Amino acid sequence: MIFGVCFTPFIDRWKAEGWKALRATGFTHVRLSVPLDRLCVDADPSTWRWVELDTLVKAITDADLKIYMNPGGCPSFASEGQPAYQDLLISSCWWNREFATRPRTDADPPWMPEAIPDAFAHGIHYFNQDPNRTDTRLDPATGHILTGPELAAIDQQQPPRPWLNNPPKMDPVFFRDIGFLLANRYKPFAIGIGNEYGGEMFNPWVKLDISRDGSVDMIREHLYPEMIKPFFDGVLAAQPDALVVGPDADSNIIMTRCCEVETRYAVRTGHSYGDLDGMDYSTSAAFVKAADGHPLWCSEIGGDPKTLVAWVRDAAPTRKYGAIFLLGQPWMPDPVIDLRNPDVAAMAAEFAKVNDPVKTAPVVRKRAMRT
């Protein structure tokens, strides 16, 4: 069985020795969620941050870990000059208070934009300046339920974001090219594209989708022809035997809809947070049914360490999943895995019940980066 962790280049930080310690703990794979807006900084490929990604990939593979490469997002130059697919940034559809209430400093990551004062000081919210909007949101600081007009008044103090109601077209040529380049350069163990298509945080267009009382099948008419299909066309042109996986779904409904249009998924992938929070559309049972007999991975799950240990203890022996990838940062010390941590030790023990424990130092494989 595959046990892996999730990692986001250009955002998360981890030193090389951490990967070797991770492998010795019993993990075998890394889900590498490459943010394309940060890899591809402008339309000139010669400026792209390949050296940083090359260095990371080499550190991971030198530790005898395999990579599931799962890029996401879209740079604005490939989406009609609009930043609608750059998640959790001030310049995009969501407002993140951590970034909104102070200016950038030299200690901040280079991708963090200059802050703009946030009129809504309690959490992040979806921009909609229409005074007739009917949605509501709880203000956790006061317990007050803000009405649609109240939220509209808050949003009217912010810069307009027209791409939320009129999503830009993504450039399929860009996605074909980046699929080809990633597959040809790294030859990953598995490869997919995008993350949680039903989530507003990553896909602002979802409010227009038929799953949210909208009138457009955004997956068939937008996401598939512009991103999913051309990306895998590029991947398979570079690596005909690539293991195509996806759609990293946040719900069984999204998984089913994506698999209806993209038939090349050899493995279905979903995020089983419903097992932890009770949401019935994202439970293991829901994803097993949606996978309809195809191989299934839980490609992301995270939470309280003890809760995760219990979940792995239940999920791993049943083999309902061929792989489990954990969101590692909340419970894995940086830069190395500390087996003295009882939660980490307990997790490693669960892995050892399913996989043979790693008893020797990992084999270091030298591999030249492909261009």
What features would you describe in this structure?
- With about 375 residues, the chain is an alpha/beta fold.
- The protein has two domains: about 1-80 and about 170-355, Glycosidases (TIM Barrel), CATH 3.20.20.80; about 95-160, no CATH class.
- The chain is about 35% helix and about 10% strand.
- The chain is built from twelve helices and ten strands.
- The chain has helices spanning about 15-25, 35-40, 50-60, 95-100, 150-155, 170-185, 220-240, 250-260, 275, 285-290, 305-320, 340-355; strands at about 1-5, 30, 65-70, 135-140, 145, 190, 245-250, 265-270, 295-300, 325.
- The strands form two sheets. It has an eight-stranded parallel sheet, with helices on one face. The protein has a two-stranded antiparallel sheet with strand order 4-5.
- Helix 1 (about 15-25) links the parallel strand 1 and strand 2.
- Helix 6 packs parallel to helix 7 (about 220-240) and helix 8 runs parallel beside helix 10.
- The relative contact order is 0.14.
- Mean pLDDT is about 80; it is low at about 85-100, about 115-125 and about 355-370.
